[in-house]
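User: I'm curious what two different proteins look like when written out as structure tokens. Can you demonstrate?

Assistant: Sure. I'll show them one after the other, since each token string lines up with its own sequence. Here's the first protein:
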Amino acid sequence: MALSGLDIFKRLPKTNCKDCGFPTCLAFAMQLAAGKVELEKCPHVSEEAKAELAEASQPPILKVEVGAGEEQFKVGEETVMFRHERTFVNPNAFAITIDDDMDDVDERVKKIESLKYERVGQILKIDAICVRNKSNNRDKFIKVSEKVSSLTKKPLIFVSSDVETLKVIGDKLKEKKPLLHGADTASVDEFINIGKSTGCPIVVRGKSFTEIMEVTEKMRNAGIKNLVIDIGSRNLKEDFYNQIALRAAAIKKKNRLLGYPTIVFPCEMTDNPLKEALIASIFVAKYGSIIVLANPSPQNIYPLLVYRQNIYTDPRQPMQVEEKVYEIGSPNEDSPVLITTNFSLTYFIISGEVENSKVPSWLLVMNVEGQSVLTAWAAGKFVPEEIAKFIKRSGIENKVKHRSLVIPGYVAQLQGELEDELGNEWKVVVGPREAGEVPRFLREYVSS
């Protein structure tokens, strides 16, 4: 049973030292009871109190780790229903299926491995491979599973209705900590043994919340908490409802038996690749922890990866790109020099329009803590004095022989003062106010 804030407060040091980031021990206790902070934030809590508060200090949705090594991913640890309340914590994991009756396993693994992109300094990629027992042949499934395991370091998910098959795979590949799908009311005792012998995370499958709770309770009582819930009917409407109900039960009702990450299968809801991507996008926000897809086409995967990246950024900290001089289209010493801020959206829009212009250019991106041009100007971060300092340290003066700088049209008022700050060594040109006008502006600028 979850402890109240006062129950937790009684077990804390009561020093009000503020080392946890809260003004009082009582305030910290209330946040801990609400699942919005971890017990480790208090550096002075005793070992005895840690043991007593272990359950209360866990987030409403437990953390589950899948895989081993550098490619391991974790899901769960969520504490809110909506991103704007605080932030979502661990991004969804995307998995691509490989069925044991496929002839092109090697090529499919290579294709999955190649789905990797860099955006805003982050690597976007597929997180796991889901091997499904479509042939209903135990030996074939085990053979394909071992083959896939030998071809990739990505975490693996094994789906089979044959418990004995999963036991064999779990024993053979337990060092890789694959996710085994899945335990139900009929097989829970066998999966308890598998979980204890292999340490692998396990999917709990049920047709209703009652069935799920029956299985998770038995698992918890046996000391197994590394669980993922599959309550999917493979129907979008019902699965969408179930995801929301599970999140609400865990976070609002503090139901520990339902407080686990989930797995959803858009790949089993439609045969249409575009519909699969659309369905998957719904579960990125509401609230699939692991999303299993059948279609590895880059045109469908990339938008999902970008969408996930945007959803799982902290809304309190804007996405930023690195402060530096960006080369667009192989610029030379005569190419135009433009400047903007390191707010990622601004950068992507401006760099895209510069690229569309077909005019090779230098784009100076200045660190203003991820704020847009106008916001940074209003906050005193994108102002002549700071811009001049950035120009000097950027090294752009060693890359071009001219001294002409294009600033955003929305801060045209900086033109004169910025030239003064630069010692009149640079001519400051006011660019367009709207990004869509950049291509025409640059073409006319270089021809003048």
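Here's a second, unrelated protein for contrast:
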Amino acid sequence: MDKAEKKRLLKNWKNAEKEKFESTLPVPRETFEKLFDYVDGCLDTAGCSHDLRFTVEFLNNHQIPLEPVVEFLQKNGGYCDCEVLMNVEDKLKNCLF
């Protein structure tokens, strides 16, 4: 297998992994972007209380079911609001955007 073939296979694998990850999202990417912006603004003024207070507030305000989103966030390292930004936002941006 030559270098070009290895690059092509790697690119195909990465694309498949991105699609696989994206298929696990409980809400559209745009909703996550809005969630991250909201939580970021709240943390700027109030700081992190080491829970998902602002995340839950956003989800409730937008009538988004809590369980699937919170489960997804925790599965991806978001156990409190600051971890949602540090872990999940970075992961989504690196994988999807």
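A detail about the second structure: Residues 3-95 form one domain.
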